[in-house]
Design goal:
This protein has one domain: 6 Propeller (Neuraminidase). By secondary structure, it is mostly beta strands. The protein is globular and about 60 Å long. The strands form nine sheets. A five-stranded mixed sheet has the order 29-3-34-33-32, with helices on one face. Strands 12-16-15-14-13 form a five-stranded mixed sheet, with no helix packed on it. A five-stranded mixed sheet has the order 23-28-27-25-24, with no helix packed on it. 48% of the residues are buried. The chain has five helices and 34 strands.
Length: 457
C-alpha cells in the first residue's frame, strides 16, 4: 500500500447519477453553470473554486502522461493532513472493486411530484415521526436567497412544500427539532446582514411563527450565520457561529418560560461552519427513532454531535442531561476536521461524515464507532443499476471512492436503514436523491462489536 493510499481522506457522497431513467453526465451537470459566468461572482463560488481547477486539470491530463491519482489527499494525519494533489487525472473505474467484509450500496432514487429549487446554504434536520428530511431557506444557482420550506418523505420519495413564506430570505441558517417544532436561528443575506430572529415551524399545523422572548438572563445570542444548534426536551441551545469572526458564546432558550440564558463558555474554540447531527431521540414519543430496546442507552444516545471547520478532528458532544459541551478525542482513519460544507449524520452506533470543500475529486464515506471512538473508512460500492463505477473511482487497493459533494444534506433513516443525501453544490438543475443502503453492513459491524464485547466479559 502506497503512502497516499495509507493516508485518510475526508470525503463526500455522490453527485452523478441516473435520474428519471436519464443519465446526468457528471462533469457537464456540475460544471456547465460555470460556462460564461464570472466564477468570483457566482453564488456558489465558495464551493466551486477548487472544483473548477479540477475540471480544467482533468481535461488537460488527456494530453499528458497519466500521473498517479492521489485518492487520499484530504485525510487527517498526525502531521495535520497531506497536501492536495493538483495533478489529478481521470478516475479508474476499470479496476476491480475489492470484496470487503461489509459494504454499503450506493444508488440514486427518483422523487415524485413538485420539487424544491436546487440550492446550497439551507437549514435542515431529520424528522423521525414523519421519516422526512426538512429543508428551508438557502441560495439558488442564480444567487437569489430563498424563504421556502420543504419536507422530503423518504418512505414515498415525495416532496411536500410546507410553506413558501418563511421569514426574510437568507442563507446559512441552522435548525433543530424539539417535539413537533423545528426551531431555526441565524443566517445572513447577500449584503452580509446577520440575523438573530429565533422562529419555528409547527409541523402539526404547518405554520411558521417568530418568537419574541420576554426574559433575558445575561443577554441573548447576537446575530450570526451557521450557529450550531442543540436541543433537549424543553430547550434550544445556540453555540458558536460567525458574524465576521468566529464566536464562542453559548446560550440556552427555555421554551416553557420563553427566555434566553447565557451559559458558561465551553472553554474551547468555536466553529465558523460546523456540522450537526442528532442521535434521533423523538421527544414527542419519548423514544429513539433507532428503535433501541435498551433503557440504559437513553442517556448515551440522546447526545448530539458537531464536527468540522477546525484544524483538528475532535468531535464536539452535547449532553442534554448536563447541558455541557465536551470534546471527544478519537483515533483511527479520521477525516480532516478543517473542511467546510461537509455532511454528517448519526446512526445509533456510528457517526457518518463525508464531503466538504477540497481539491480532490473523489471521496470516501467515513464512520466513527461511538463505542470505541475509532474512525474508519466505510466501504461503499455502486449498485450497478442507477450508478456504476464510472461515476466514482477505484483505488489501487480496490476501494471505491464516491464523487465529492459540498453543502449536501445527509440524514440517516432508521425505517429504511439507509443514508439519504439531497441538494448541494453540484445540483444546479435537478434535485435527485443519493441513497446508501446500510442494513447488511450495519448488521455485520454490530455483530463484530458484540463479539468484541464478549471478550471483555
Amino acid at each position: 500500500m502506497g503512502a497516499n493510499e495509507s493516508a485518510n481522506q475526508y470525503e463526500d457522497l455522490c453527485y452523478t447519477n441516473k435520474f428519471d431513467n436519464m443519465k446526468i453526465s457528471s462533469l457537464p451537470t456540475r460544471y456547465s453553470p460555470l460556462n460564461g459566468i464570472d466564477q468570483k461572482s457566482h453564488p456558489f463560488s465558495d464551493l466551486m473554486d477548487d472544483d473548477k481547477s479540477l475540471f480544467e486539470n482533468h481535461h488537460k491530463s488527456s494530453h499528458k502522461k497519466k500521473a498517479k491519482f492521489n485518492s487520499d489527499s484530504d485525510n487527517d494525519s498526525s502531521s495535520g493532513g497531506t497536501s492536495p494533489n493538483n495533478n489529478m487525472v481521470k478516475n479508474h473505474p476499470t479496476r476491480k472493486i475489492a470484496k470487503m467484509p461489509y459494504q454499503g450500496i450506493w444508488s440514486m432514487v427518483s422523487t415524485n411530484g413538485f420539487k424544491p429549487e436546487p440550492r446550497t446554504g439551507h437549514a435542515y434536520t431529520y424528522v423521525p415521526s414523519e421519516n422526512a428530511i426538512f429543508i428551508a431557506y438557502g441560495k439558488s444557482d442564480d444567487g437569489r436567497l430563498l424563504k421556502d420550506a420543504w419536507l422530503l418523505h423518504l418512505s414515498t420519495m415525495e416532496w411536500e412544500c410546507v410553506t413558501f413564506d418563511m421569514l426574510s430570505p437568507r442563507t446559512h441558517v441552522s435548525a433543530t427539532l424539539v417535539g413537533k417544532k423545528i426551531f431555526l436561528f441565524g443566517g445572513k443575506d447577500n449584503s452580509n446582514k446577520f440575523f438573530a430572529d429565533l422562529h419555528f415551524v409547527d409541523l402539526a399545523h404547518r405554520i411558521v411563527k417568530e418568537i419574541s422572548p420576554v426574559q433575558f438572563e445575561n443577554g441573548c445570542p447576537s446575530p450570526r450565520s451557521s450557529p450550531t444548534l442543540f436541543h433537549s426536551d424543553n430547550s434550544v441551545f445556540v453555540w458558536s457561529g460567525y458574524n465576521g469572526r468566529t464566536l464562542t458564546d453559548y446560550y440556552e432558550y427555555k421554551i416553557d418560560s420563553n427566555k434566553w440564558e447565557k451559559l458558561a463558555d465551553p472553554g474551547f474554540e468555536g466553529r465558523r461552519i460546523s456540522l450537526y447531527a442528532s442521535s434521533g431521540y423523538d421527544q414527542s414519543t419519548s423514544q429513539f427513532s433507532i428503535g433501541s430496546q435498551k433503557s440504559d442507552l437513553h442517556q448515551s444516545f440522546e447526545k448530539q454531535f458537531a464536527f468540522g471547520c477546525h484544524s483538528n478532528s475532535d468531535i464536539i458532544e452535547f449532553d442534554p442531561q448536563t447541558k455541557k459541551l465536551n470534546k471527544i478525542k478519537c483515533t483511527g482513519h479520521r477525516p480532516r476536521g478543517n473542511l467546510d460544507y461537509a455532511s454528517m449524520s448519526v446512526q445509533n452506533n456510528f457517526i457518518f461524515v463525508t464531503g466538504g470543500k477540497h481539491s480532490s475529486e473523489f471521496t470516501y464515506l467515513y464512520a466513527l464507532d461511538l463505542a470505541t471512538k475509532n474512525w474508519f473508512k466505510f466501504h461503499v460500492v455502486p449498485d450497478d443499476k442507477t450508478v456504476t463505477a464510472n461515476e466514482g473511482n477505484v483505488t489501487e487497493t480496490g476501494h471505491f471512492e464516491l464523487p465529492r459533494m459540498n453543502g449536501q444534506t445527509m440524514v440517516y433513516s432508521p425505517q429504511e436503514m439507509a443514508l439519504y443525501a439531497v441538494l448541494g453544490s453540484r445540483y444546479f438543475q435537478e434535485c435527485p436523491v443519493q441513497k446508501i443502503s446500510l442494513a447488511t453492513a450495519l448488521a455485520t459491524l454490530n455483530h463484530r462489536n458484540d463479539m468484541r464485547a464478549m471478550l471483555y466479559l
